[in-house]
Each structure stands twice: as C-alpha cells, then as structure tokens.
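In the current project phase, we have settled on a layout for protein records. One protein thus recorded is set out beneath this paragraph:
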Amino acid sequence: MTRAVPTRARAALVAGVATATARLLVDGALRGGDRWTRTNHRGRPVSLLEGPAVSAGLIIGGILGASGHRAAAAVASATAGGAVFGLVDDLAEEPEGRAKGLHGHLGALRHGRLTTGGLKVLGIGATSLAAASLATPRAASGRRLARAADVVASGALIAGCANLVNLLDLRPGRALKVAVLVSVPVALAGGAGAGAASAVIGAAAGAARRDLRGTDMLGDAGANALGAAVGTAVVLDAPRRIRLALLAGVVALTLASERVSFTEVIARTPALRVLDSWGRREPDAHEPRVDAARGMAR
C-alpha cells in the first residue's frame, strides 16, 4: 500500500500534465478550419480538440499507473479503442437525418447500412472485449466457460461505460464530473484498477478549465475514451457481483436515455442541478430543451 499511493499520485499527475500538454500541441498543429469546431447549446463555437488531448493523458497515465503488463494493455486497448472510433464518428459525421442513438445505429446495421456510429459500436465493442479478456484472471482447468461469460459481461460493462459517458457530454463539465465521482472510490481502494482510476482523475483535472468555460468539449473521442477507462478501472478492481450490478445499471440508464432527457432530469432535481452547474464560468439557466444521443449539442 505504501508504494501504491505514490504510484497513484504519479499516474494522476502525469495524466493531467499529458492532457494539458497534448491540448496545447494539437491546438498548434490543427488550429484553423471548422473540422474541429461545433456549435454548443448557446450557439457558440466549441472545440473538439479536448478529446484527443484527454485520450493521450488517459493512455499515458493509465499505463504508468497499471498494476502489471496485462492491466496496462487492458487500459490502453479500451481507451485507444474509444478514442479512435469516437474520433471517426466526430470527424466523419453523416448529413442531417443520420441515425441517432444506440437504437438508431443498431437499426441501421440490421438494414445493412453501416453508419459511423455503427462502426463505433462495433469497434468499441471489440476493443472492450479485448480489454476485458486482458483484465480478467486466467481460468483454472474446467472453468473456461465461466471465465468466457465473465469476459463478455466485463466487455459489455466497459463498452457501456464508454457510451454512457458520451451521453453525458451535453453540458460543460458534466461528463468529467461523473467520471471523477466514479473513479475516486476506485482510486482510494488501491486495487488493480486504482492506477487507471487515478489517470481518469488527472486527465479530467487537466481538461477541466477549458471544458467548464464551454470552449472545449470531449466529443465522442474524449467521452468514449474517458468512459472506457472508467469501465476498465472498475473491471480490474471490482468483484463479479459488483460488475454485474453496475452493468445492469449502465444498461438501464442507456435504455432510459432513448426516451428521457438527462438534461431535463438534472434540471428538475435540485441536488443534481447544483452539482451539474458547479464550476461553470456562466450559469446554465434558461437552456433550450436540447438533448441528443451523441454528445454534440452543448
């Protein structure tokens, strides 16, 4: 435990510094043009460059804080998968009338049409399964079927977390806050997932200033990477019954998001409204009823 504390602190610090540094580097390399700019819920421009920067911080910090080679590979696989396939969805948006939400993308797949969102679902699903396989202990003789079921459930949890954090990236700071709130107890527990959870906290801190000001947003790349890192930290740390309970909760929230606006629920709940608006540069009052299955309407 005495060695674990400085390792966690180092992972958080490196993730934060790497995120802030990567943000400056990508700004210098990619500034100019509208490809990395979207319009938020206030009608103001917001940059997607936070996504690649946060992804870099998560991968570097997560590898540094990993408890072993397999844990490091699991974190890198899940986070990189979320970042890469999310970035494809960010930059190769389809025209108006595109499929929206998990239901829409899966429906398009059933009709033989592969949307960028559908590609993201398949890609993140595959990298999440790979990460779960790396994070799940090898089975003893005769228990391979049970391990396979465990890997599938854990992979679904990682992919589900990636999608859920993306659903929350609709207002400044919201997705970062939720990711940190989930990661803090995992980091404090000091288990195998503590390094990845610490990297999430550090990367979120490195991105918080611009995100809370509403000038940057995670986009699909950053939100999917952040959620995948959180999910991997939980898979590395939590016993099976906890993972299954969390998977049920993630699935329930994902299904609810197809019918219910998280933004409206937060606005009607005083405690959630205070937490959601905390730290923002401007009050989040009188917002239009804008919500979406993808984190692009901020």
